[in-house]
Amino acid sequence: MSHESTVVDQALQLTRDMLGAGQAQEWERLAALEAQREPLLRREHSADEVYQLGEILACDRELRALVRQARDEAAAQWQRENGRARAISAYAQA
Fold it and tell me: In terms of pTM, does the model score above 0.90?
């Protein structure tokens, strides 16, 4: 196995770990793993490694969906809490 394949294998494993962290909503762990993976992906890769990079991209698409969903859920919860606080404030002033 060449050094370059080892680098892509490491990047793929980090990507899988990132996906697991995203599915578990472990956002700090996800960010730490992404920071480890970043330099591995910035290297030049051979044509033989394209299939592995394709899997990395597929995982990244799923991660973006998970992060977007979590962000939307957090925004909705914030709006609910903000609305509840306004209602309590209005009731207290009545």
Answer: no
Strands (E), 22-65: none
Along the 94 residues of the chain, how does pLDDT read in single tens digits? 445 557 888 999 999 999 999 999 999 999 999 999 999 888 776 666 767 788 888 889 999 999 999 999 988 888 888 877 777 777 777 6
**Nearest-CA neighbor of 15 among 25, 30, 3, 26?**
30
Please name the residues in contact with 43: beta carbons below 8 A apart, sequence gap of 6 or more.
4, 7
| CA–CA gap between residue 93 and residue 35 (Å, rounded) | 49
The two three-digit tokens of residue 70, written as one number: 């979590």
* Three-state SS letters, 3-14: HHHHHHHHHHHH
Domains of the chain by residue range: 3-93
Residue 14 CA to residue 43 CA, distance in Å, equals 15
Q: Where are the beta strands (DSSP E) in the chain?
A: none
